[in-house]
Amino acid sequence: MNHNPHSFRIADDAIDTKRVPYKQLANGDKIPVVGLGTFGSDHISGDQVAAAVLDAASLGYRHFDCAAVYGNEDKIGRSFNTIVDSGLIKREELWITSKLWNDKHAEQDVIPAFEKSLCDLQLDYLDLYLIHWPFPNFHPPGCDVSHFDANAKPYIHEIFMKTWRQLEKLVAMGKVRHIGTSNMTIPKLKLLLRDANIKPSCNEMELHPHFQQPELFKYVVDNGMVPIGYCPIGSPGRPERDRTPQDSVDMEDPLMVKIAANHGIHPATLCIKWAAQRGQVPIPFSTTRRNYRGNLECVTTPPLTADEMAEIASIDKQCRLIKGQVFCWKQHQNWEDLWDLNGKITPA
Length: 348
Ligand SMILES: NC(=O)c1ccc[n+]([C@@H]2O[C@H](COP(=O)([O-])OP(=O)(O)OC[C@H]3O[C@@H](n4cnc5c(N)ncnc54)[C@H](OP(=O)(O)O)[C@@H]3O)[C@@H](O)[C@H]2O)c1
Prior knowledge:
There is one protein chain. The chain is an alpha/beta fold. It has a single domain, classed as NADP-dependent oxidoreductase domain (TIM Barrel), CATH 3.20.20.100. α4 links the parallel β6 and β7. α1 packs parallel to α2, α7 crosses α8 and α8 packs parallel to α9. It is globular and about 55 Å long. Bound molecules: NADP nicotinamide-adenine-dinucleotide phosphate. The site of NADP nicotinamide-adenine-dinucleotide phosphate has 30 residues, from α8 and α9.
């Protein structure tokens, strides 16, 4: 393992990056089919995540999913600097995503927030910049899901477009190659696709075997966007505040256990293999070397059979883990309103 944050070498057990597939974006650019998530929740320090980023790159990872709200971009930036400075991996070989947080949607705040991420990450451009959630609000870091922001706003398309125009400006300035969304719904995406001068390249959304979102997934793909799947393993390390008694555990599903055993891999790794083969880009988080190595290696081994893919398609439990309760804009509002379940944008 690369222990020294100031030196970088390719690992002896690195995965041949030529064997890692890419997904093609609408303009022909390519995104590596597995990325490393970097959200350490409350218990994994920025230094630990930064060490995993450095080591994962030495093993063959070229795609990293970052965000300002994860509070560790400055630490991860040191790893990127070490990697690129080594001369062993060129900046153009990396795919680096960051995201605009909910308290920076105002027109005048977007570019400074972007610049802060860029500076922390020690980069001069980003490959992808996402609007993290479509709702403007402010919450102190690490607050409980019961926290309520009296100034929280619902999705108001005209206001969202003002934020989007700033992202378009970043593309025109040559600061970011692609822009996209996260935690969107079909009705919201329809409006954005109608009005955007630069269309979103990707939509980042919760995707794992027990939460497959087939309708949204199809809409995203049919409209030329790449679906990036977060919590691809079902987020077993998520904080208590994001757990409810109804949540199911993908890794313990008997079908996942059975198919994983047939392939000699961990059920968590099967989640990643299934995701990449289905057509999304999973971004598993891990700071355990054996795990993040396995999560990349699994896309280089023989594929799942059509029967196995069909069996996994049948275990969807519509179990959303990241409900977004804290982003409600009315006190005692139901979190389901955030997700436009009746096909219409929930009004204020
Ligand atoms: N756009 C959004 O709103 C949004 C929301 C949530 C998350 N995200 C992004 O998505 C990323 C992934 O989501 P997540 O971190 O919530 O959940 P996840 O990737 O589904 O799960 C991560 C957990 O799985 C464990 N794990 C990973 N690989 C494993 C393996 N092969 N075998 C056994 N256990 C394994 C990790 O432990 P070890 O460290 O021990 O391996 C960690 O506890 C985040 O880090 C973040 O970048 C985005």
